Amino acid sequence: MREIGRQEIEDIAMGATVLGTGGGGDPYIGKLMALQAVEEFGPIQVISADELDDDALVVPCGMQGAPTVLIEKPPSGKEMFASFETIESFLGKKVSAVMPFEVGGVNSMLPLVLAASMRLPVVDADGMGRAFPEVQMEVFSLNGVSASPMVVSDEKGNTALFQAIDNVWAERLSRKATIQMGASAMIACYIMNGSEVKTSSLHHTLTFAEEIGRSIRIAKTNNEDAVKKVLEVTRGFELFRGKVIDINRKTDGGFAKGVATIEGVDPFTEETLTINFQNELLLAKSGGRVLCMTPDLISVLDMETGRPITTEGLRYGSRCVVIGIPCNEQWRTEKGIATAGPGYFGYDADYVPVENLIRGGE
Amino acid sequence: MREIGRQEIEDIAMGATVLGTGGGGDPYIGKLMALQAVEEFGPIQVISADELDDDALVVPCGMQGAPTVLIEKPPSGKEMFASFETIESFLGKKVSAVMPFEVGGVNSMLPLVLAASMRLPVVDADGMGRAFPEVQMEVFSLNGVSASPMVVSDEKGNTALFQAIDNVWAERLSRKATIQMGASAMIACYIMNGSEVKTSSLHHTLTFAEEIGRSIRIAKTNNEDAVKKVLEVTRGFELFRGKVIDINRKTDGGFAKGVATIEGVDPFTEETLTINFQNELLLAKSGGRVLCMTPDLISVLDMETGRPITTEGLRYGSRCVVIGIPCNEQWRTEKGIATAGPGYFGYDADYVPVENLIRGGE
Predict the structure, then answer these.
(1) What is the pLDDT of residue A362?
(2) Nearest by CB to A161, which of B92, B161, B176?
(3) In sequence order, which residues have a C-beta less than 8 Å from that of residue B111 and are 6 or more positions away?
(4) I need a labelling partner for A120 at 20 to 30 A (CA). Which of A77, A138, A274, B131 fits?
């Protein structure tokens, strides 16, 4: 167990934006909420999965919906309390700890808000090690954990509890509720006991996010190359360096979908990079060649500061470095690739790990 | 308490089709299920609201969605058991009795199926005294009863439990779940204790449906005018007599919507009647004059047999009598008209009771 405060929250938020791969929602609002909660309730207890009692009731939680909407309709906080009441009365058991189901983006922060305000510890683990747009895209799911009972709640006070036959149905049903609630809602799903968390989650991912964030912060202080530091901490690869020249973006079916085009900085080349996204950046391609694809992580960093840029933050003229980060090995299994690989998102590409794509091209 | 069997089920189904005002789903599938349940489990106990213990847990239940879809995707029965399990584990209490929330159409039958197979009594009461297309259109709602917790479940095994801030939100959220589940699902809502049922429901409406059905059956046996008998039992009015010449029907947003046009039988007049429907028949108009409108009941009966014809049963050439039946007085309050009057459905008409419209025109 360790306690975290303002500095750690800032670092986690920064790192989670890198792991958010452009999506997952800008953690900014979540960060403000977490800082406010720490101000009000004191430091947050972070525990590792191994510290959990085997029968502890652990509730992964966060938001669902289009991050672009989240900016306009921030959570009130109340909705999560309502979710927890629903869970506790449905399961007849008190919640022992909260946990992110997604360490990328705003969903790294919301469990911290709840942990502080409900005086519960937060588990240093998640189910993605990054951000993904759909409920079933969790290593929890790969490990046979059910997303149900799943609770969706809005800032008005509506809650919905789903018991779906599988995790794809949990996604479908919860997504419709979220859209009806205004395209952004709070969710709790993959409720587990302690022993399930130990065997079915990705451990120490909050700490991993914090390390990434800290490396960017320290690089600035020390006048070091922040992008290089991020690549070191994440064991990632530089894919492309350039300037954003086009963003094609729409909100469709509760997702922010589109394509970003980046022009190389070298004035003597016409090379460009395109990145397809559906909330998250999913496929980076240049000169007809795929450079990195889901479930590996694609992240866009500011060329000067190394700070991550979300898809909604991408602007014409942004000077950036696009990096690729190897995903957790669990995502590289047959089931992992079927769940969150390029084929699932409709891209005509067979998954090849980013390190092979990059090294193969050297 | 009385027990009912095959004959009563047949009569209730027939009467409920009249009260279904063209919608509410043809009770045919529900009737078959109820007959099968009686065959298997024995007679069904029907109790009046006054016989309920004040703290009895009473669950109004039925289906939601487009009746046209129900015909293609009949309920499996399992979904209702799943709903009840969800309710019991959520409320921590056993269900004492079931009840129709709608005595019109198929939803008169489904509580009977459940009553038989779960060996629970069914309460002789409902919340409409007819059929209506939306969840909040219940005298329960007019009397301040919450539709939540509301459960939606499908034949695949998915269930959703909603706690909505009001009954319009219960409608919105449950409707989206129903559409996602395939445009037809089983629901349980307006869960009440016995004392609430006593004060907030329409009493003896199953018996009323049975009386209507019996009058049609007996008229046939006695070679009497069945339409006249129905008008006597319901204190209704003949609005129009003619032949269906056009049906404009589409399934939209989970509803069967459209307009039926009926040509008068008198060959020397060009008079026609149009009926607008949204699952139910809502507004009957002829010669620029409204003859009957929601919340009063509009029903189409076969000219020869007096048997009701549902909107999905209306065919070109059907020879029919359109009748208007005064609704329960609770629907004629300001709140009742706001909830289910012509304005709510987008018709530019102020509500006038059918008896005034008819007598005023005589």
Answers:
(1) 46
(2) B161
(3) B60, B61, B62, B98, B99, B100, B122
(4) A138
Structure tokens given for B213: 């059905």
- Distance from C-alpha of B136 to C-alpha of A100, rounded to nearest angstrom: 36
Confidence of residue B253 (pLDDT cuts 50, 70, 90): low
Whether the predicted pLDDT of B136 surpasses 70:
yes
Q: Is the confidence at residue B267, as pLDDT, over 80?
A: no
Going along chain A from its start, the domains and CATH numbers come out as 2-205 (3.40.1610.10), 224-361 (2.40.390.10)
| Bridge partners, residue B193, by sequence | B57
Between CA B26 and CA B277 the distance in angstroms is 15
pTM greater than 0.90? no
SS3 A93: coil
- Tell whether the model's pLDDT for residue A89 goes beyond 70: yes
CA distance A358 to A301: 18
> CA–CA separation, A225 vs B320, rounded Å?
84
Region of B149 on the Ramachandran plot (φ > 0 left; ψ -120 to 50 alpha; else beta): beta
Output the pLDDT for position A44.
97
pLDDT of A77 above 80: no
Q: Mean pLDDT, to the nearest integer, of B53-82?
A: 82
- Six token digits for residue B317: 């050439």
Q: Are A15 and A206 in contact (CB under 8 A)?
A: no
- Determine contact: B322 vs chain A, CB below 8 A: no
Cβ-defined contact of A158 to B160 (cutoff 8 Å): no
What is the average pLDDT across A1-18? 97
> Model ipTM?
0.80
Residues from chain B that touch A82, judged by Cβ atoms under 8 A, are: 163
Q: CB distance from A179 to chain B under 8 Å? A: yes
A64 token code pair: 């669902």
Token output for B7: 């004959």
Which residues are A270's β-sheet partners?
none
Looking at per-residue confidence, does A38 or B183 come out higher? Answer: A38
The interface residues of chain A toward chain B in range 44-73, judged by CB-CB distance below 8 A, are: none
What is the rounded average pLDDT for all residues in chain A?
92
Give the model's confidence band at A253: pLDDT under 50 very low, under 70 low, under 90 confident, else very high.
Answer: low
Q: How does DSSP assign B147-174, residue by residue? A: --SEEEE-TTS-EEEEE-SSHHHHHHHH
Whether the predicted pLDDT of A103 surpasses 80: yes
Q: Yes or no: say if A214 and A13 are a contact pair by the CB < 8 Å rule.
A: no
Give the one of B156, B163, B179 whose C-beta lies nearest to A158's C-beta: B163
| % of chain A beyond a pLDDT of 90 | 77
- Looking at residue B67, what is its pLDDT? 63
Chain B, nearest residue to A82 by Cα: B163
Q: Which of A94, A37, A29, A93 is nearest to A63 (CA)?
A: A29
- Chain A CB contacts of B89 under 8 Å are 90, 92
Q: How far apart are CA A41 and CA A115, in angstroms?
A: 10
> Cβ contacts of residue A322 below 8 Å, gap of 6+?
A238, A239, A240, A241, A242, A262, A273, A275, A284, A298, A299, A300, A301
Flag whether residue B253 sits within 8 Å of chain A, measured between CB atoms.
no
Residue type, A74: P
Looking at residue A80, its pLDDT comes to 78
* CA–CA gap between residue A76 and residue B9 (Å, rounded): 50
